[in-house]
Amino acid sequence: MPELPEVETVRRGLQPAMEGAVIVRAETRRGDLRFPFQPDFSARLDGQTVVSLGRRAKYLQADLSSGDVLLMHLGMSGSFRVVSNAAVTTPGGFHHPRGDDRTHDHVLFHMSNGAMIVFNDPRRFGYMKVLARADMASDPLLKDIGPEPLGNEFDAAMLAGACAGKKTSLKAALLDQRVVAGLGNIYVCEALFRSRLSPRRLAATLSTKKNAPTDHAVRLVEAIHAVLHQAIAAGGSSLRDHRQTSGELGYFQHSFQVYDREGESCSTGGCAGIVKRFVQNGRSTFWCPKCQR
User: Fold this and answer.
1) Residue of 2, 91, 122, 149 with catalytic role
2) Burial of 31 (0-12, 13-18, 19+ CB in 10 A)
3) Angle made by CA atoms 127, 178, 165, in degrees to the nearest 5
4) 3 is catalytic
5) Same-domain status, 236 and 282
6) Number of domains in the chain
7) Known catalytic residue: 39?
8) Out of 34, 219, 283, 290, which one is annotated catalytic?
9) For residue 56, what are the domain limits?
10) pTM score, two decimals?
């Protein structure tokens, strides 16, 4: 499933085609994706100007002139294709080719600027819904999402406070969207490696007995910021399904220091460790047992 950098890359690719343009017609070619479309889904979109296109965690959010918001999630295999002046681009950055079978074109947005934005999703784990901006804070899909890891409010003190007293592993805490938004398996593995912290470490060790952040928390937040900024600049990680709106693949996978490198030498200078993999909470965890403590 695309993580925060991949979704942010898609947002930036769609922005020129959507922001400031009117959705002349929203066309759904089936009754559902992961969930059924609302009965008034198209009616609430037709004729509305996309005022801005933002992102919250792994969700795309199109603010509309009506005061509604179009919420979009890529799911496991969803991708957008922008068709404009005979040119076709696919925002995102996914390793295996994606969305070439037009039978999986499930949603089309016909824009006033001549662009047609197509959502293709073979597995249909993606979803879309329209809701009032005033209802977003209480919406079940959004209300429990934690802070944005690249937001100004996310710092060592906030992360330490969220992890204080937790009995779960550090990796499990970081994957919890209530603790921090948008992080997935790839970037958690990479951030833990860069901060030299074991994925098995208790999350509570980020906080002192007085709930102040430890040095571990400071290092981890710095690593999260660094890895996300680097991944966004690279267009995301092209693993199974991610492709940019330009149709190009993301290149951050070439910068992986630990993820998917089982059996290779640790990239830390002076470390003689070997990258290991183990299953943790149903997900593959990659780490160096020698330098991650």
Assistant:
1) 2
2) exposed
3) 160
4) yes
5) yes
6) 2
7) no
8) 283
9) 4-138
10) 0.86
